[in-house]
Design brief:
186 residues, mainly alpha, Tetracycline Repressor, domain 2, 9 helices, elongated
Length: 186
Amino acid sequence: MTTKENLIKLATDLILEKGFNAFSFYDLAKTMDIKTASIHYHFPTKTDLGIAVIRQQSESFIALQAANQKKDPVTKLEAFFSIYSRHKSQGKVCMVGSLCTDLYSLDPAIEKELKPVVESILQWVTDILKEGKRKGVFHFSATPRTKALLIITNMLGILQVSRITGKTDFNEVRTAILKELKTKTE
C-alpha cells in the first residue's frame, strides 16, 4: 500500500471511530511515523483528505450496489445492512453518520462531496423498497422514499446508540426492520 493509500485508510478509520474533528495531520504523522510534510504532499489540506475518504467510501458503496444489482430485494437490503454490520463489528460508525454529526464545523467542500453519496444511498434503498413492494415481498404504507429514510436513519441511530446500550440492540433493530417490511398489514 502506498503512503497515500495508507493515509486514506487511517483517516477513514479515525473518522469512523472518533469523527473528522477528532484527529489532526499530526496524529496521522505520529501513527504512521512520517512527517506532516509528507501528508501535505498528498493532501494539502485536511479537507482534501476528507474528500479522498468520501470518494473511496463512495467507490466501495458503488461496488456493493453493483455486486447485488441482480439479486432479490431482501438480499439487496441485507447488503445495505451489511455496511452497518461491518462497522458495528469494528466498533465504528458509518461515514455518513460521522460526517453529518460534524457537518456544520466542516469545510463546505466536504458537504458538497458527501451530498451525492447520501442521495445515492437514499435512492438505492428507495429502489430496493419499490422493487420489493412491486414483487409483493415488502409491505409498507409510507412512500418508498419516506420508508427508505426511516430505515437509513434507524440504522444510523442504532449504530450510534448501541455503542452504549449493548450488543444485541443493533441486531434486534435490524431484524425488526426486515420483519416489519415482510409482514402484510391488513
